[in-house]
Specification:
The protein is of the alpha/beta class and 244 residues long. It has 11 helices and 8 strands. It has an 8-stranded mixed sheet with strand order 1-2-3-4-6-5-7-8, sandwiched between helices.
């Protein structure tokens, strides 16, 4: 039987960060997915910030003491010839415990995640970056639960975050962009309704040809949330027309 490092060595690579840590990128792992009638097999990668002095073997040896289950790690689902194909779609998807897992109708996150998978498979090439430190636009799950209570008392999403002492949006995409650069050097098309998000990512080095919208998943219970995105976060769309 092979040693652990002999099996994993070619599946781990270090992506250099501009500080004392590297990003350990693990994969690809073949991940067959089924959601209703939709089926596809993606290549799954996950990444973790580690001390830049550590070797792959040292990182593996340290895993039991790292308590990774008490935090979150980000990952990316890749479909098709992502490295070489000229045209690829990507989605930078912020984790949403309530929407992605429970199917909450207070947002459109679960819809966007699953619809992005379908769009990428139909397109033939792309990647979904699932960003684990983005819950509640970066405020965390516990803070998000408090923000939801404020929203039940007529605060909108932005007002609730401000009331808890947070900015509108505290998410960072730096690590995700470094992982993207390690997987693909050609430009991509971003799946988003927010041109400001595209511009911000481009300012941080994203090579992008533009963006495609992903409207849908609208319900009576998330209409105000979506309208706030349009009015305060720069998203394109008319929620009132979608409700007709």
């Amino acid at each position: 039987m092979k040693n652990t490092i002999d099996i994993l060595n070619d599946k781990i690579r270090f992506v250099v960060r501009n500080d004392s840590q590297n990003l350990a990128l693990v994969g690809p792992v073949k991940l067959p997915i089924k959601q209703g009638d939709f089926e596809a097999t993606f290549n799954w990668y996950s990444w973790l910030a580690v001390d830049s002095q550590k070797t792959k073997q040292q990182m593996i040896d340290d895993l039991p003491a790292m308590n990774l289950a008490f935090g979150q790690q980000s990952s990316v689902l890749v479909y098709g010839d992502f490295e070489n194909r000229d045209d690829a779609l990507i989605r930078m998807h912020s984790i949403c415990h309530t929407g992605d897992i429970f199917g909450s109708q207070r947002c459109d996150c679960g819809y966007q995640l699953h619809e992005s998978m379908k769009m990428i498979v139909e397109h033939g090439c792309g990647a979904i970056f699932y960003l684990a430190d983005h819950e509640g636009r970066g405020i965390g799950l516990f803070s998000k639960s408090l923000a939801y209570l404020l929203q039940e008392d007529y605060y909108d999403t932005v007002q609730a975050n401000h009331a808890l002492g947070f900015e509108d949006d505290v998410r960072s995409y730096e690590d995700a962009l470094k992982i993207l650069e390690s997987l693909r050097s050609k430009p991509v098309t971003l799946i988003t309704n927010n041109p400001k998000k595209l511009a911000a990512l481009q300012a941080h080095g994203l090579a992008a040809n533009g963006h495609v919208p992903i409207w849908g998943g609208l319900t009576d219970t998330n209409a105000r949330y979506l309208q706030t995105k349009v009015e305060k976060s720069g998203h394109l769309g008319d929620v009132k027309k979608l409700l007709v």
